[in-house]
Amino acid sequence: MGSYYIWTIGCQMNVADSEQLGHQLENMGYHAVMSPEGADVVVLNSCVVRQHAEDKVSGKLFNLRSLKKSRPDTIVGLMGCMVGPKTDDLRRRFPHVDVFMRPQVFDPVLELAKARAEALRSGSRQASTEACYEPQPTTTAALSHTAFIPIIHGCDHFCTFCIVPYRRGRERSRLISDIRDEVETLVGRGVREVTLLGQKVDSYGQDLVDRPDLADLFHALHDVDGLDRIRFLTSFPMGITDKIIASVRDLDKVCEHFNIPIQSGDDDVLLAMRRGYTVEGYLDVVGKIRAAVPGVGLSTDIIVGFPGETDRQFDNTYKLLEDVQFDVVHVAAYSERQGTIASRTQPDDVPLAVKKERLRAVEELQKDISEKINAELVGQKLVILVEDRKKDKWEGRTRTGKLVYFPAGATDLKGSLATIYIESASPWSLQGSLIAID
User: Fold this and answer.
1) CB 3.0–4.6 Å: which of 65, 257, 375, 385 could bond 297 by disulfide?
2) Using CA atoms, how far apart are residues 52 and 302, in angstroms rounded to an integer?
3) Once rounded to an integer, what is the mean pLDDT over residues 284-313?
4) Which ranges in the chain are annotated with CATH 3.30.750.200?
5) What is the CATH T-level fold of the domain 381-437, as seen in this structure?
6) Among the listed residues 222, 215, 264, 221, the one whose alpha carbon sits nearest the alpha carbon of residue 240
7) Do residues 303 and 264 touch, judged by C-beta distance below 8 A?
């Protein structure tokens, strides 16, 4: 019937959205291709959390002008967080784009895709935009042994630096029964590990009538036959309850890994960010997790150069990272986002050179910390789920999120649980040799 190409940048929620759109197009008879030049439907799934991401999307969109000029029948769409409630500016900047879609809003491009297919079948080259697309259940076979499962969309916590609530809307949880049905379907197609997604994943269920929580969902998915691992992200510090921690401790399939952004190690900066907690409160949560789940993997997010951040305030963040010893730290320099509270009330007054220096300091510190943590794993036997092959090595992750590589032989091990003897370590990954396959 036709072909499609989806390009994705940004968070795992965007990845999940792109996968869902791809499944819907395939249900209509379209097939995926590797470049926009060979596609009848081209969609860019955008991110604007950082300026670099937005610039990259804009560059991709401008590059599609020549394609649209040479092939006017190609449907070009933009989706994701770059698309807000008003699209006048986007339409002015990118007149060659046929449709603009906010996150999780797929119908506009699906309607055009269906109309195009019907026009081709009738012998016409023009697709009527009046055709009505009726969404169908996903029937596409899984392409991987891992899958992202959005369980709650949107965010009700309006941090001053964040554009996400304005683009993804308020929090909306899915029913446990619907999530379980999706997981069972994916497992039937070969998926062995799912990652439950939310902007604040531990807010799951608060908007539902019977108010189930993330721990209840863990329990509901734990007995799905064939499912080996359950991951979850991203956690909000004050949303992590004792019940959630206990479920991670007690349920064998739930992986011992928390991604808990702190953003700053200074209380005044956290207040300016409207994060809703103090450093002491954050550390209390971390302490509870480590006491209940020995060997747990912990990662966090840091913003350096937030408006008004002083040297002393940055030093507080640096010291927190030294003290907590996270496995992974995702760090970014503050980037003003139009439409956020900060863009209206907090001047971006930290010089770019200072931001870059603070960024470099955090990266160097975390490199040393990660190298030390990973070195302690040398000589141990770790179980990974083999996810992919990169040249002459297989790669996979431990339950705590460590990336592991080992030599690839002739046997296809993708999707297997492999026991690996760890022989060496770097700040970013572990290297080892295969002992056994489950």
Assistant:
1) 257
2) 17
3) 98
4) 257-375
5) OB fold (Dihydrolipoamide Acetyltransferase, E2P) (2.40.50)
6) 215
7) yes
